[in-house]
C-alpha cells in the first residue's frame, strides 16, 4: 500500500482548495499510520451537520479512498436551504475524495525509517 505523509496530503489539499471557492475548513490532522509514521487524516468539517466526516485512504482490503461519516448523537432537522447547503458540502467531500484518489494513483513516497 503506497505511503502518503501528512505533508504530502497537506500539499494536495492546498492544490485542491486553491482552485475553489469552498473547502476552507478542510484540514489534515495527525494520524499514525500502520508504519508508525504520520500518515495524516483529511477532516472535512460540515457547517450544516454535526457529524464528523473524514476521507479515509485506501487500505489493503479496499483500494478506494472513502468518505466516512461518523455517527452523531442526535438527529438533525434541516430546512430545504440547509439541505442544499449540506449537499454542496458533501459534493465538495466527494470531489476531494476523487481528487485524492487521482493524485495518489501515481504517487510514490517512502515512509520514514523507524
Describe this structure in words.
It is built from two helices and four strands, in the order αββββα. The chain has a four-stranded antiparallel beta sheet, with helices on one face. The protein has one domain (6-105). The protein is 34% helix and 12% strand. The chain has helices spanning 6-18, 80-105; strands at 27-29, 41-43, 53-56, 66-69. The chain has 114 residues and is of the alpha+beta class.
Alpha-carbon distance between the two ends: 17 Å
Query: What about the largest sheet?
Result: 4 strands, antiparallel
What's the gyration radius in Å? Answer: 15 Å
Would you tell me the overall average pLDDT?
85
Shape: globular
Numbering strands along the chain, what is their spatial order in the largest sheet? Answer: 1-2-3-4
Low-confidence stretches: none
How much of the sequence is in beta strands? Answer: 5-15%
Percent of residues in helices: 25-40%
Strand count: 4
SSE layout and pairings?
Layout: H1 6-18, E1 27-29, E2 41-43, E3 53-56, E4 66-69, H2 80-105
Antiparallel strand pairs: 1-2, 2-3, 3-4
Helix pairs in contact: 1-2
Organism: Microbacterium radiodurans
Protein name: Protein-L-isoaspartate carboxylmethyltransferase
Characteristic key phrases:
114 residues; alpha+beta; four-stranded antiparallel β-sheet; 4 strands; 34% helix; Protein-L-isoaspartate carboxylmethyltransferase
How would you summarize what this structure contains?
The chain is α+β, with helices and mostly antiparallel strands and 114 residues long. It has one domain.
